[in-house]
Amino acid sequence: MVARVDDEHSQLEAVRDARVAVLARKYENPESAEHEARFRLLTEKLRSLDPRVSEDEHAALADSTALLENSVDLIAKIKRVFGV
Fold it and tell me: For the chain, how long is the longest CA-to-CA vector?
């Protein structure tokens, strides 16, 4: 497990380093479509390796949304029953 975490960390660092290098070249030659494409690919790879929001957080948000929607439906039914 520790080896896997170290490997993921190494991969994350390698992608970050590559992205920074491409970003530097991009500003040296801003007209290069190749640098722009490579930068975008590395950015997506970086986001997949180190997401800003985890899958667990997405799941928690989906659960909260479902609970809210159910509550809204329940309130609407109660209003209909009591004529509010």
Answer: 69
pTM of this structure: 0.48
Under 8 Å between Cβ of 71 and 30: no
Q: Are 26 and 35 in contact (CB under 8 A)?
A: yes
Q: State the total domains in the chain.
A: 2
- Length of the chain in residues, anyone? 84
Whether 2 and 42 map to the same domain: the answer is yes
Domain, as residue range, for 21: 1-52
3-class secondary structure per residue, 30-55: CCCHHHHHHHHHHHHHHHHHCCCCCH
**Measured between alpha carbons, how far is 8 from 19 in angstroms, rounded to an integer?**
16
Query: Tens of pLDDT along 33-80?
Result: 887 888 889 989 888 888 888 888 989 999 999 999 999 999 999 999
